[in-house]
Design the sequence.
């Protein structure tokens, strides 16, 4: 289990930002921020709003999570981005709306994601993982930034500026001041100290900045200061960065042309835009991601298939739940039951969730949370359908274990009514499977007309599943 807490990171960062108005920090995934925000007192909430309004705290990406780009469906990507942005806009207004896509950790990148970001009015997308050979060529030719053409059909409306981070999404070597996950020495600027190391740090930083600038086409360089789980003690970071900024800029008096300051991807993008450089274009995916020789990250396209399926079931349940709630004129009374599934479906789009790259106990928890939130939405479906049908005494039951061909409802009776709901705006032909314990059934439509049906044996591989508890041998 990871020994880290996002709540402590936000606690610490906010306090450090309040101490110095030149300091900046970006925040990405709304899910964790929202959990923190709801626990804060109004006085601190107002201070955070001030930090957002003056640009010190900037929301980047802003979806409920940083979604995967290979196993996630575009509908669920749009849903989770919409929910995250809705929370931010409702809370912080226009200043809380992100303008930058921040996909630094997904394992390869989709042209469709670029198109979606462009349609969301994002100005750019930043990422860190691309094929190592592609990266080598781009570094040599200063093409780590480009104009990504997201869709042939949409044309320029789907174009988006794209920045690939050469160093990954962590700090430069030798500049990691995280107390829990770092180890680099602090900047000692007391000239009386035997450990005085200002010149050493300034020389190292300027050397690295000049080297790094050779990878990009303009004179703007972006250094990400921090990475996963860092800043639980933000003071160690900001105290050393304050010193670094002061002493590197002091070198300009001796002829240095390196100017360093706190920034954000939005500010960086403005600098790149003002350079008036013409960038090359790309019109396909950054897939598959190959981090080294024979190291293609493609197994996750199909890993944890049961969870991948369950996530799609969850999306279906969410769309049906939202639609029926609206059609039955719920008028918001069911939000406490709908929102949990909306939020957990947002979590499921994470690049370590639907991707299948999470640890087993995490995967188990995802499935459990999804099950619980689907159940809450099923009560909304039950109530809404009864309102639409006009009979509030009906009790809609659900088959939640069809993935193992089991359903206590259909196995426990030989006479029942089956409710089928089509969430699409058009007709569909879909095979319906119901586990049964008998060999002969008559299936009728609502008008009493016979519907073609067959009895099909459940495969032995399914019948032998240890976790399956069912008497049904046919469907």
Sequence:
């Amino acid at each position: 289990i990871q020994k880290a807490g996002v709540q402590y990171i936000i606690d610490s960062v906010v306090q450090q930002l309040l101490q110095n108005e030149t300091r900046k920090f970006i925040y990405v995934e709304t899910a964790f921020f929202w959990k923190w925000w709801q626990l804060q007192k109004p006085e601190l909430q107002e201070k955070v709003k001030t930090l957002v309004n003056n640009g010190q705290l900037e929301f980047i990406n802003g979806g409920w999570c940083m979604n995967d780009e290979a196993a996630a469906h575009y509908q669920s990507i749009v849903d989770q981005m919409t929910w995250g942005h809705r929370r931010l806009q409702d809370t912080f207004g226009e200043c809380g709306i992100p303008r930058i896509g921040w996909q630094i950790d997904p394992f390869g990148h989709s042209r469709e994601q670029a198109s979606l970001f462009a349609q969301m009015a994002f100005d750019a997308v930043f990422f860190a993982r691309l094929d190592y050979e592609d990266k080598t060529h781009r570094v040599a030719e200063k093409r780590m930034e480009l104009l990504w053409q997201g869709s042939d059909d949409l044309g320029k409306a789907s174009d988006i500026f794209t920045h690939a981070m050469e160093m990954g999404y962590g700090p430069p070597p030798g500049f990691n001041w995280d107390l829990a996950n770092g180890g680099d020495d602090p900047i000692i600027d007391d000239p009386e100290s035997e450990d005085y190391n200002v010149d050493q740090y300034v020389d190292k930083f300027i050397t690295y900045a000049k080297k790094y600038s050779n990878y990009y086409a303009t004179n703007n360089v972006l250094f990400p200061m921090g990475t996963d789980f860092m800043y639980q003690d933000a003071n160690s970071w900001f105290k050393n960065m304050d010193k670094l900024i002061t002493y590197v800029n002091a070198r300009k008096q001796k002829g240095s042309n390196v100017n360093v300051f706190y920034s954000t991807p939005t500010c960086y993008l403005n600098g790149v835009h003002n350079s008036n450089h013409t960038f090359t274009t790309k019109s396909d995916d950054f897939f598959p991601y190959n981090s080294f020789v024979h190291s293609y990250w493609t197994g996750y396209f199909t890993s944890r298939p049961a969870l991948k399926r369950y996530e799609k079931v969850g999306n279906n349940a969410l769309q049906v739940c939202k639609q029926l709630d609206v059609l039955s004129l719920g008028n918001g009374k069911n939000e406490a039951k709908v929102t949990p599934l909306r939020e957990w479906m947002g979590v499921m789009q994470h690049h370590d969730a639907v991707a299948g790259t999470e640890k087993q106990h995490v995967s188990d928890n995802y499935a459990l949370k999804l099950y619980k939130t689907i159940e809450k939405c099923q009560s909304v479906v039950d109530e809404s359908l009864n309102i639409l049908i006009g009979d509030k005494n009906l009790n809609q039951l659900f088959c939640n274990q069809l993935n193992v061909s089991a359903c206590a409802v259909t196995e426990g009776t030989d006479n029942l009514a089956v409710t089928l709901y089509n969430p699409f705006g058009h007709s569909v032909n879909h095979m319906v499977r119901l586990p049964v314990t008998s060999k002969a059934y008559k299936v009728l439509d609502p008008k009493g007309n016979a519907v073609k049906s067959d009895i099909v044996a459940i495969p032995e591989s399914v019948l032998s599943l240890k976790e399956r508890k069912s008497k049904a041998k046919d469907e």
